[in-house]
Write a structure and sequence with these properties.
The chain has one helix at about 35-40, and strands at about 10, 20-25, 30, 50-55, 85, 100, 140, 155, 165-170. The protein has about 180 residues and is mostly beta strands. The protein has a 3-stranded antiparallel β-sheet, with no helix packed on it. The protein has a two-stranded antiparallel sheet with strand order 3-4.
Length: about 180
């Protein structure tokens, strides 16, 4: 492997950082012991800037290019954004309806023990939500189907492959120009 640039970030498929590299987990490191790396990234990822600074943190995050594409939000190096899970509210869902229609089948000859075209599973009022007094082909009240769920968040991360982002703690100091 060639010598990396100091501060270079690479992905590795093993569970340890190579020699001269550190995991990108937001670790706080000393400015005094890592002055060359501090000169490159400063407090872009955190730290107080006098005695310490932080390495990038890719825990539960995906890499993203800086700048903005058509119709996207501008991103700068070091920005963090997004959420691992989201709880949708009614206001975030598109307007829609849940309609439910009851069909009254009074003819016993058309009943069957399993779903089939033109057949019902039971007589109205027998182990079903139907009642004998229901008007045929009547629509239920729109309030019959209300809120569902328990306000639990759903997974919001893109599919991923478990790899380790590592930053070069030693290497060639990059030249600018």
């Amino acid at each position: 492997m060639t010598e990396p640039f100091l501060g270079e970030i690479q992905l590795f498929g093993f569970n340890f950082p190579p020699r001269g590299w550190a995991f990108c987990t937001g670790a706080t490191v000393s400015v005094q012991q890592n002055s060359a790396l501090y000169a490159l990234i400063g407090t872009l990822y955190g730290g107080n800037g006098t005695t310490n600074f932080q390495l990038p943190n890719f825990v539960n995050r995906a890499g993203c290019n800086q700048g903005a594409g058509p119709g996207t939000t501008r991103r700068s190096a070091g920005d963090t954004f997004g959420e691992n899970s989201v709880t949708l509210t009614t206001a975030e869902m598109p307007a829609h309806m849940h309609q439910f229609t009851i069909y009254n089948q009074g003819t016993t000859s058309k009943l069957a023990p399993s779903p089939s075209a033109g057949n019902s599973l039971a007589l109205p009022g027998q182990s079903s939500p139907f009642v004998n007094t229901t008007v045929a082909n009547a629509q239920f009240s729109p309030n019959m189907i209300g809120m569902a769920g328990s306000g639990q968040p759903h997974e919001n991360r893109q599919p991923y492959l478990a790899l380790n982002y590592c930053i070069a703690m030693a290497g060639v100091f990059p030249s600018f120009g």
